[in-house]
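Weekly structure sync, notes
Attendees: PL (lead), two postdocs, one rotation student
Agenda item 3: pending single-chain targets
PL asked that the sequence for the first pending target be pasted directly into the notes so everyone works from the same version. It is reproduced below exactly as submitted, 256 residues in total.
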Amino acid sequence: METPIAETDDGAMVGMSYVLNEEAQLAQVWSAQDQAEYEQGGQEIAARFSTVRQRLEGLRTQANTVWERFVSLVLERILSQQVHEFLDEIDGEIQTLTQHLTEIDCEMDRIRARVHERRRVLAEKITLLEPLAHRTSTQNHLNMMLARVEGLEAYLLGRKDVPPQSYDLHYKRHTNASGDLSYLRVRLLTTRIALIAANRSQQLSRFDARLSESLLEAEQYKAELAMLTARIECMSELSRYWLMYLDIVLGKMDDQ
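Predicted structure, written out during the meeting:
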């Protein structure tokens, strides 16, 4: 993308209008408020991840305790004829754990949706920055300014030891030094805008990479959650198995 600068008497005004337009575009793409909101949002997501991590650790400890009680005491309770009360107690704890795990699962889905939305916004802003930053990908822009400087130098000093192309840029296309200076000013301003846009695009790409890492962290928590849920469901199935088995045994004893 090149900023058109008309080679006319009012070329400076035309060029500056493009500069002002591009500066306005740059300010709209990523402002200080956008930066503050991004940092605040990042802190919010980190805090929610921390809460999920703490809750998962607590639930894992509770599940381990319930499992140890279940495997170590179920036979003892069967022999003491207290198994129904024991399994009912275990079932209550399992239901509580299941409810908490469901809450964490829903929270992880909300966090992932939040991260995906933030990545979508960043992708849109990076796309808007690309046209402003594109000119820094070639040397043509700088070469044109260098040639204009050499031409201006030749005009002011009356020198002939400059490339003919640079000399002609002044005499064939401009008749006064102010035109060259206006041209250089506009080109320098648009180049500065391009450099800022390119740096900002790289910054937003780094932000996006961090959000991508957050999604990987979320997937890890989801995997841990699935394993813990499977363990609790296993206890629930074993508890139902024992109850059905005892109902069958006791039913046969009553028949006798």
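Discussion points:
- The helical segments are 11-29, 32-79, 83-133, 140-157, 164-173, 177-255.
- The CA atoms of residues 122 and 204 lie 6 Å apart.
Action: rotation student to compare against the earlier draft before next sync.
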